[in-house]
Amino acid sequence: MTNKEPVAVVGIGQTKHVAARRDVSIAGLVREAARAALADAELTWADIDAVVIGKAPDFFEGVMMPELYLADALGAVGKPMLRVHTAGSVGGSTALVASNLVAGRVHGTVLTLAFEKQSESNAMWGLSLPVPFQQPLLAGAGGFFAPHVRAYMRRTGAPDHVGSLVAYKDRRNALKNPYAHLHEHDITLEKVQASPMLWDPVRYSETCPSSDGACAMVLTDRAGAARSPRPPAWMLGGAMRSEPTLFAGKDFVSPQAGKDCAADVYRQAGIADPRREIDAVEMYVPFSWYEPMWLENLGFAAEGEGWKLTESGVTELDGDLPVNMSGGVLSTNPIGASGMIRFAEAALQVRGQAGEHQVEGARKVLGHAYGGGSQFFSMWLVGAEPPTH
Amino acid sequence: MRPPIRDIAVVAFAQSDHLRTTDEMSEVEMLMPVLHEVLAATGLKTADIGFTCSGSSDYLAGRAFSFTMALDGVGAWPPISESHVEMDGAWALYEAWTKLLTGEADTALVYSYGKSSPGSVRDVLTRQLDPYYVAPLWPDAVALAALQAQSLIDAGETDESALAGVAARSRAAAADNPHAQLRGADVPHGDYVVNPLRTGDCPPIGDGAAAVILAAGDRARELCERPAWIRGIDHRIEAHSLGVRDLTDSPSTRLAAERAGVFERPVDTAELHAPFTSQEVVLRKALRLGEDVTVNPSGGALAANPMMAAGLIRIGEAAARIHRGESRRALGHATSGPCLQQNLVAVLEASEEASEGENR
C-alpha cells in the first residue's frame, strides 16, 4: 500500500567548495548553504517545519553529534531535527529521510542539509583509528577500492586509459560549475595520464580532493510546490540498500545492493529502460574507474560494456547520457555532503537551473551515492513533471 | 499534528542485560542476542523485514563507521533497505515510523547500542558541545547536569531529599527488572559527585543494546496479540547554549508532547529518559504528569543508562507494558544533548483504543 504525498525540491543551496574554509565556523558553513536554499525557494526560516542533517563520521571534525551544536545555526530551535549517518552515502540518505517526512505527510516543508568541513581535522586519520581484531584500513579509501577496479579491468578487458578519460571529462565539467572545488584551467588528458600512480591503477588525478562544503535543499509537498517561484524538481523514486562489507559472496565490482537500489527507484518511477528514459546522471565517482563500473551496476550498460559508453563519449556533457555534469565527486568532495550534491545537482538539471553545465532538455535525472566498502547505496530519480505513479 | 496516515505499532521489544563493563564482548556480540530475541518474538527473519534502522555513536566506539560492523551482524544479505542515525535509537524508531507511513514498508527492525565502559563517558560527552567556545573547557556531563539541578533547587522546584526520593523510587522499581544495572532499595545515595548531585542522583555508566519491531495495520495484528499502537510521536530541539535556556523547564518536551497528542487523554504510564534525578522533575512538569501516573516502572535511566539505547528502551518498556496488558495508554520519552536539549515523545495505546482499519 502506498499513498505517498508527492515530494518536490523547491530550493537548492551550496557553498563554494574549497580545501579549507578558514573564514567560517562549522555553523557558518552550514548556515551559508541553508540560507542559499531558502533564498532559492523564496522562503524564510519560519516556513521550515523540520531539519534533517547528515554528514560522514563525527571524527572528521572532532565534534560528537554536531546537530546539537548546529541547532541554532540552522533555525531548528523548537523544531524536530534528525541526524543521519550512513557513511559516504549519507548525503543521499539524508535527503531521502527528509523526503519521507513529506511523503508520509508528517511535515509540509523540510530543510535538509549535509556538510563536511574536512579542514577541521584530517580525514585520513579520522578513518584510521585502530581497532583490535579488525582489518586495518588499507592506506585510505583508494587502497580499499583499487583492487576492485583492477578486478573490473580484468573481468571486462577495459583498456588502461578509460579511467583517465573520466577524470579529464569531470575536471573539464567542473570548470563550468562555479561551486566546484577543483578548477584546473590547464587540464589535459596527458596531464591526467602523467600524474603519479597512487594505488595502481588509480592515479593522483583520478582521485577526489578533500573539501570543505555544504549542500542544502528545501523539500515540500504538492501545496508547497504550487507556491514555488521557480520550477520544482519532482521526486519520482528514491531508495536505500545495504549489504555487508565483507563476505565470501560479495561482488565488489558490481554489488547486489546497488543493483537492487536502482531497480527499486526505477520501479517507483515506472522506468523500464534507464538507458533510454533517463537523460543524465549525477553519479558518486570518487575514483574515476567507478564511472564505467556504476554504469553497469545502475543498468545503463550491459555487464562488461560500461567502459565502452565512457570511451565512446556518451557520458560527456554533450553526449547522449551525460554523467557528472557538475564535475562530480572527482572535482568536489566534502564527504558527508557529496551524496547530497549529487541529488541536488540532479534536481538543478530538471529545473533547468544548472547554468553552464545544464544539459539541454533534461527531464529525468538520477542522483546516486554510495558509501562504506561499497556497502551502502542511496539514489533518487527526479523529474521536471510530477509523478504519475 | 495531523493524525498519522497509517496505524503503526510496536510489536516486539528486547534488550540486553546492562552491565558496567563488557570487555569480553564486541558491540556486535552484545547486540546479536537482542536481535535474535526480538525477531524470535515475531517469528520474522531479517529477510522478512521491510526496513531496518539503527542508532549508535562513533565517539563511544572510538572509531569511524562503527555501525557498519553491527550491520554485518544483522545479516544484510540479500541486501536490505536500511538506514542509520547518529542518535539514540528512539530517533531511529522515528525514522522507521516515517518510512512505514510512506507505505514503502510494512515492518521495521530498529536497534541501538552503546558501550560507555571503554572510556570516560563524562569526558567523551564534552565533545558534543560547541567546538569553538565550550568544548575546549571540557565541562563534563555531570557538571552540566549539576548546573541544571542547582537551578531547580534555587527556583524552589525541588530539594536534595526530593531528588534522593526519585533515585530510591527508581531503583526500587528496578528490582523487578532483570536487565537493570543498578537495582534495589538499598543502593546508597552516596557522596557528592558535583554539588548538588550525589552518586545516587546520577545514572550508572554501562553498556547495553535494545531492539524493537514496528509493523503497520493488519501486519501488526498478525505479529502481536496486543500491539502498542503509536498514536503520535514527535521530537523537538532547543538552543545549544545553556546561557539562553531556562534549565528549569523543557519547552521542547512540552511541544513534542503536544504534537504527539499526550494531553488529549491521560496516560497511565510514563517511561522517561531522565539520566539525572533532577531531570525527572523537569520532565514531569513539562509533561504535566500527576501522582496517578506510573513513572519509570522499569527503573528508568537511573537503573540502566546505556548511551544511545536508553531512549529506545523507554519506548520499548512502555510498549512492553501494553503488550502485557499492564497499560492502556503509555508515554515513552527520549532525550539527547546536554541538560535535556533535545526530546522525543511517543504515545502508545492498547488495541482497545485503536480505530478500525488501516486508513483513517
UniProtKB/TrEMBL annotation, chain A:
InterPro entries: Thiolase, Thiolase-like, Thiolase_C_2. Pfam families: Thiolase_C_1. Residues 244-373 form the Thiolase C-terminal domain. GO terms for molecular function: acyltransferase activity, transferring groups other than amino-acyl groups. Gene3D superfamilies: 3.40.47.10. This is Thiolase domain-containing protein. It comes from Streptomyces tabacisoli.
From TrEMBL, chain B:
One of its GO terms (molecular function) is acyltransferase activity, transferring groups other than amino-acyl groups. Coiled coil: none annotated. PANTHER family: ACETYL-COA C-ACETYLTRANSFERASE, NON-SPECIFIC LIPID-TRANSFER PROTEIN-LIKE 2. This is Thiolase domain-containing protein. It comes from Streptomyces tabacisoli.
